[in-house]
Design brief:
InterPro entries: HotDog_dom_sf, WH-like_DNA-bd_sf. The chain contains four helices and six strands, in the order H-H-H-E-E-H-E-E-E-E.
Length: 161
């Protein structure tokens, strides 16, 4: 648990604080402040991977842009994590159907090419089919005219209470 301080761990393990600090140093575990900062930065990735919607024709199509940065990359690389690209695509798919709440029933996705920090990702969505309260939305994401991602999302509206 990254939220436990050395003193709390020492008490829970019935050892001294210096033992906890020694073990943490030996195992390469960051101190409390750094662990909290790391958890907070990881949480921000999900929030920052939504992009900015530039054009939206409800129930038809949409365009969105995402400026990538180092918070979205794998440690020690400039390669954008797939979860950020997926979140960007899913957000546009949900936006184009104007859903207060919807679930992704099925997603068929393909990562075609890696994206790098500093690149602008451009996503284009198209509503391909509407059937029984569900939607099939295709999303294609490009960086520098190269296709990075493509996916089809089967979305189902849910009741909002």
């Amino acid at each position: 648990n990254p939220f436990l301080k050395d003193e709390e761990l020492a008490q829970a393990c019935n050892v001294s604080v210096s033992t906890i600090r020694f073990d943490r140093a030996e195992l390469g575990i960051a101190e409390y402040r750094e662990r909290i900062k790391s958890v907070a930065e990881e949480g921000l990735v999900a929030d920052t991977a939504v992009g900015e919607v530039l054009d939206l024709n409800l129930y038809h199509d949409g365009i969105s842009v995402l400026k990538t940065d180092d918070t979205m990359t794998f440690d020690g690389t400039d390669i954008i994590k797939g979860q950020c690209i997926y979140a960007f695509a899913e957000n546009l798919a949900l936006s184009v159907i104007d859903a207060k709440a919807a679930l992704v029933k099925v997603a068929n996705v393909k990562y075609m090419h890696e994206a790098h920090a500093g690149e602008r990702l451009i996503a284009k969505s198209d509503v391909m089919r509407v059937k029984d309260g569900g939607y099939i939305v295709r999303v294609v994401i490009k960086a520098n005219m190269n296709e990075v991602f493509r996916g089809k999302f089967s979305l189902v509206m849910t009741d909002v209470k």
